[in-house]
Amino acid sequence: MVGAARRSWLGSIGLSGTLAPLAVGLVVFGLGQELWSRYLPEYLRFLGASAVVVGAFGALSDLLDAAYAYPGGWISDRLGNRRALVLFGALTTAGFVVYFLFRSVAGVFFGSILVMAWKSLGLPASFALVGEELEGSRRIVGFTAQAILKRLPIVIAPPLGGLLVERLGMARGMRTGFLISIALSVVMVAVLTGVSRRGKRVAPDPAAFRVIPPRSTPRLHPTLKRLLAADCLIRLCEGLPDVFLVIWALEVLRLTPSQFGLANSVLMATAILSYFPAVALGGRLEKKAFVVATFLFFTLFPLAVVLSRSFGQLLLAYVLGGLREIGEPARKSLIVDYADRGSRGKTVGLYYAIRGFAVAGAAAIGGALWTVRPTLTFTVAAVLGAAGTFWAGFGLKTDPS
In the prediction, which pLDDT does 280 show? Predict the structure, then answer.
């Protein structure tokens, strides 16, 4: 009786079938990584990196995000979503080991090549898995539930990571965080391995088993093309200041690492709370409204950060930052809605590959602007965000016809 009730409840929030243990794996993985990931740019500064090098690190992350997206979708379609996620989780775990063993700028750069596997290679597989398990309006519920569970670790872990850095110092604190990540990610891979051995299986597209020829590249629906154009501008807005947020907080505002971690917790708690009205209103408002709202908050966030002069003001800015997530489930649902069923992984991969390559240099540009004047990084980001919000508001149509 209890088991049936539990399964019914999980199904109602989009975590039926194999999605529930997958979500547990995401939480376990996130708890380890979020201890230190927000402090990685400041760790590079500790290792002797300049603002330009920190910007180059952010650009590398964006470039890998783009380069991995389409191959990740192809591997997902070929191996199956579950087995692909196991592979990508194992590669990311290996990257954590590199971080731990090599205390150098080069070690961070090389480790990131592996660490990005889960986030970027695995993204199309996770999208396709939701599309495989859920249909129609339940998809947006499924994306919302997974987004909440993915972000819960960010509410908990960053302040704890900040305390590690304060108590143990930057070097020992970060290395302790890497060690915890290794242990927890091993647990995650074990959970994903269990998921890969059960659950319904959808026959893959036969074309997915061939080497990737140009003619197999899926076509993007016109709606996806319009969404992609606006999304690229918004991600430029996000990418210019992203790796410099911790540097702004610690070096300009003179906050402590734990205060910066708490700001990130506030951001993610706000993001989680924003999902509930989005789901409640999802059946009454079209998805475009949520996408435009999300893009507007992306635009306001860098302005709010650069105007902050105290910890309290930064917290308010991070509340705005959390509201950036209000339309993310709707945006992801739109991508899946307009992707061909037989090649969802490749379509999602192509979308994110194009977006990733378009914004790959954002952090490097942000670093160059930072050397001129730190505030310039944030103001230029806001201008790009405003352009993306305008295009989403007036250029995006969500009528399938």
Answer: 65
CATH number at residue 62: 1.20.1250.20
pLDDT tens readout for residues 234-292: 999 999 999 999 999 999 999 999 999 999 999 999 988 887 776 666 555 577 888 89
Give the pLDDT of residue 180. Answer: 95
Per the structure, how many domains does the chain have? 1
Maximum separation of any 2 CA atoms in the chain, in Å:
65
Question: What's the chain's Rg over C-alpha atoms?
Answer: 20
Please, are residues 161 and 38 in contact by the beta-carbon 8 Å criterion?
yes
Query: What element of type H or E holds 324?
Result: none
**What pTM value is reported for the model?**
0.78
Give residues with Cβ within 8 angstroms of 240, minimum separation 6.
302, 362, 363, 365, 366, 369, 377, 378, 380, 381, 384
Residue with tokens 């730190």: 374
| Both tokens assigned to 29 | 């993985």
CA 175 to chain CA centroid, nearest Å: 23
